[in-house]
Amino acid sequence: EAGVAQSPRYKIIEKRQSVAFWCNPISGHATLYWYQQILGQGPKLLIQFQNNGVVDDSQLPKDRFSAERLKGVDSTLKIQPAKLEDSAVYLCASRAEGEQYFGPGTRLTVT
Amino acid sequence: AQSVTQLDSQVPVFEEAPVELRCNYSSSVSVYLFWYVQYPNQGLQLLLKYLSGSTLVKGINGFEAEFNKSQTSFHLRKPSVHISDTAEYFCAVSEGAAGNKLTFGGGTRVLVKP
Known about the structure:
The complex is a heterodimer of chains A (111) and B (114). Chain A is mostly beta strands and 111 residues long. Chain A has strands at 5-7, 10-13, 19-24, 31-37, 44-50, 53-56, 65-68, 75-79, 88-96, 99-102, 106-110. In chain A, the strands form 2 sheets. In chain A, strands 2, 4, 5, 6, 9, 10 and 11 form a 7-stranded mixed β-sheet that branches. A 4-stranded antiparallel β-sheet of chain A has the order 1-3-8-7, with no helix packed on it. Chain A starts with a strand and ends with a strand. Chain B has strands at 3-6, 10-14, 19-21, 23-26, 32-38, 44-50, 56-58, 64-68, 73-78, 87-94, 102-104, 108-113. In chain B, a hairpin with a 7-residue loop joins strand 10 (87-94) and strand 11. Chain B has no helices and 12 strands. At the A-B interface, strand 5, strand 9 and strand 10 of A face strand 5, strand 6 and strand 11 of B.
């Protein structure tokens, strides 16, 4: 069974630029999450989808972050405009049978 | 609101020695607890989980953890570590349904020395 796929793996941008991350969850997993992991910290939930609907986006900085999951499968997370403090690893996960499965993450560096 | 505290940010340990990583949680709802491992430049991999039943949970790679409700703890142990166990370990609690909306601790970095 293929795992959660994410791309790109690494991205370097300048502040005020925009960036997008892509996630393809494990086939058949209805629930998808995006987490932000700042260096030296544990992951923090940004947004949760159930199929193509948002369940919880209370921790998403909506003035600059947006996410969608149009067909209930792949998802994209966008930051526009980026700030220095957005430098982090962005992890995507999907859930089944009481467990979350994580992708390898996208490491974003904002200069 | 739920929270997780990992009491040690770094744990150096010699190869073949035992290790214990401490985790305390607070939650006002049903408790589901998890330990994940993160190797450099990789995502998180589940080591073990407590959903219900026996308070002693066995996971992959020889790890085990014990759920203690009275002390609100879920400490992770391994009797004999290998160099390959060098990684960061995260304790997490989920809210509501098992495995949903994970809240993570700050992580414990384990460095295994030869």
